[in-house]
Design goal:
The protein is of the alpha/beta class and about 550 residues long. The protein folds into 2 domains: about 5-175 and about 220-310, Up-down Bundle (ABC transporter transmembrane region fold); about 330-545, P-loop containing nucleotide triphosphate hydrolases (Rossmann fold, 3-Layer(aba) Sandwich), CATH 3.40.50.300. Helices cover about 60% and strands about 10% of the residues. The protein contains 16 helices and 10 strands. It has helices at about 5-35, 45, 50-95, 100-110, 115-140, 145-155, 155-200, 205-255, 270-310, 370-375, 400-405, 420-425, 435-440, 445-450, 470-485, 500-510; strands at about 330-340, 345-355, 360, 385-390, 390-395, 405-410, 485-490, 515-520, 535-540, 540-545. A 6-stranded mixed beta sheet has the order 6-7-8-3-9-10, sandwiched between helices. A 4-stranded antiparallel beta sheet has the order 2-1-4-5, with helices on one face. Helix 1 (about 5-35) packs antiparallel against helix 9 (about 270-310), helix 13 packs across helix 15 and helix 15 (about 470-485) runs parallel beside helix 16 (about 500-510). The longest helix is centred in the middle third of the chain and has 48 residues, at about 205-255. It is elongated, with a radius of gyration of 35 Å.
Amino acid sequence: MGLWTNLAVAAGLLGMLFTLAQAALVAWFLAGLITDQKSWDELLLLWAPLPGVLMLKVLAQWAREEAGVRASQLVRAPLRLELLAKIHELGPVWKTGQQSGVLVSKLLEQVDGLDAWLARYLPQRSLAVAGPGLLLAVVFPLNWACGLLLLATAPLIPLFMSLVGRGARVEQTKQFLSLSRMSGAFLDLVRGLPSLRLVDAHRQQTPRVAAVAEEFRVRTMSVLRLAFLSSTVLEFFTMLGIALTAVYLGFSLLHLLNFGSWSGTPDLALALFVLLLAPEFYLPLRELGVHYHAQAEAKAAALQLMPIFEAQARPGVRGRLTPPEGPVRLEMRGVAFSHAPGVPILQELNLTVGAGEAVAITGPSGAGKTTLLRLLAGQLAPDSGSILVNDIPLSNLDPEGWKARLGWMNQHPRLLSATLAENLRLARTEATDEELEEALEFAGLGAWSASLAKGLLTPLGEEGRGLSGGQQRRLGLARVFLRKAPLLLLDEPTASLDHETEALILDRLQKLRAHHTLVVLTHHAQPLGIVDRVLELRDGKLWGGRQ
């Protein structure tokens, strides 16, 4: 356990000591009033310290909660960073095969699923042993029979807690899976809602949403049912132990039972003291039972997070050489690649792109055009063959250095829920405001940005909400301009655009290609006018088209 967890345990034990003091003051104060008929003034030393003891007990409880929260934060924050680093390491190729909603659920809800386990269960696990042990150490010297009653009934609570907890862990795992499915389904639906509305299919999704939500409701209620069952069982055995202790003490005070005390029959003060301590004896065990479900939730969350840490991405660029400066010349020699064994995508593919040359690659959907572009970007490594950059194997180049030499644009530029400036600086973090405005002007967005009340500080919605498709594509073009990279990789840069926006983007790309090596994937004829060569990708190989 860490420092904050140990502090939480120490604060819990300190609170237990204040509880002992409180019980002793109350017991002897009541006994003085009832049996000894003493006045309040005579009992001043017993009732006057009570408010202070109660305040110290509350402070100890607060310190325990605060230390638990700090212990949880020290684990969850780095864990999220590790998950993000792992997802970054796995790369965009791995991420495209995942549901974004599921990943978001894992980074948020399932990491937070560890909170109760770290903040409460781990400290309580130690307190469930140390707290009752401390109270037994006080009770046994006073009355061994009460000590034996408490000791005999205490194991029943963790025993039944464990039995119920096994079922809770299974249901919690199912509930997390249901939550992930629901998050993924909802996010995919929200992202696709504009397209669904266009084809008037959005109403057909209502039954699907209802079914996913109902499944999650059923799973959640199953977990709650077991949680309430566990609480009922714990309360039953707690009340049983307290009742047995009360019956024994009552009969002892009536002189019907004459055993258990080291010094004859217990008096009222001793009986009240032990009886007040009985609920506190079971309290740490009951709280452990309450937080035992946190352990089940944490294990279920860990099962969902582990596949990310265990995932192995397809290897990409892994070298250490600094990429060469100046114009980029590309060459692919006998490159073969397959996403799954026995299902080749590219076979013995050869391609040469001269420095400053523009090449277009066409072909049917699924032919492997995007895979080819990811190979050139270093996101994937070929199964066989080689890729050369200015006669240097791409596999030998430093990945971060090679990324800095690339400009990437596709038909769906990724936009963040951030300011216009922050979205543009994803291309080049050190870009000045003047360079950002120049890039916007180049992309045909100068008048639009000038009309914004906050200018470059205007916040953009998630995924470019509030922007048209043409504006989003022009922002992608502005990023390419800012990038100042010698190699541009363009994946369907003009797909689904109106003629005016398409013409503007092609005009700007024509200006850019004069100083860059350009590889563009397209299904449309218009971009072919700005390239030197057109090749068709078919059957895993490139076939010469227009030269």
